[in-house]
Amino acid sequence: MAAKRQGGAYWPFLAMAALGLVAGTGSALWTMKQGLGREVHAGWSGSKVTGSVDADPWTRAQVALTGLLALNRQQAIYFSRRTDDAGQPLREDCRYRVEGATLPARWWSVTVYAADDYLPLNDDDALSFDATEVRRDAKGRWAATVAAQRPASGAWASSRNAGAVDLTLRLYNPTPAAQADFAAIAFPRVVRIGCGKGDAA
After folding, report:
1. What's the predicted TM-score (pTM) here?
2. C-alpha dihedral over 34, 63, 179, 105, to 10 degrees?
3. pLDDT digits (tens, 9 = 90+) for 147-188
4. Is the dihedral angle over the CA atoms 103, 108, 110, 115 positive or is it negative?
5. Cα angle at 124 between 141 and 142, to 5 degrees?
6. What is the pLDDT of residue 25?
């Protein structure tokens, strides 16, 4: 009986160790997904060391965790966001207008990802839009839609079955100025048009 009581005394310590392991693992995953040393500009988050030989272990782990194919900075720079311009989380049941001007790159794209960092499981064949799909006005400005349903016209990226939406902006062959200073980039705005039936916000 004494031996049983003595063994039972270890259970609180084992429970605390298990709790610490879970908390530590969750903290590590959160850090990897958020990334260390990231910069945020106009709601878009990016890192100058993604895809670089200078990338720290956390950034390398983040690339492995999210499945991001990280080219070097001269080939592409990456930015992501999970909120609209009002600071509200991006959601599948809302419609958004993504609008901007000329971006400092030879080519660019915006892709929709789901909360699990994978492409949404739908057959819309429209999970991204790029520089070749948008129509520019006389001032070079453009707009596209991110929504679960195709709009009447214009470039579109489908968020159907995404749940919590994550947008990734890729700038391919960015200019040296853009590589050196993210703050100099005129990032696209993400404006919520409406949510739910009838687009009631």
Report:
1. 0.73
2. -110
3. 999 999 999 999 999 999 999 999 999 999 999 999 999 999
4. negative
5. 0
6. 38
What is the amino acid identity at position 146? V
Alpha-carbon distances of 153 from 150, 157, 180, 196, rounded to whole Å: 8, 12, 36, 20
- The conformation of residue 135, written as its DSSP 8-state character, comes to P
Q: Which amino acid is located at 150 in the chain?
A: R
Q: What is the DSSP string of 96-118?
A: EEEEE---SEEEEEEEEE-TTSS
Task: Report the b/e string of 58-80 with b at 16+ CB within 10 A.
Answer: bbbbbbeebebebeebeebbbbb
End-to-end CA distance of the chain: 65
Upper half-sphere CA count for residue 115 (Cβ side, 13 Å):
7
User: Token match 């915006």: residue?
Assistant: 110
> Residue for token digits 């900075």?
73
Residues 44-72 have pLDDT tens digits of: 999 877 544 444 444 444 444 444 555 67
Sign of the Cα pseudo-torsion (28, 32, 192, 69, in order): negative
H or E element that contains 24: helix 11-34
* Radius of gyration, CA atoms only, the chain: 21
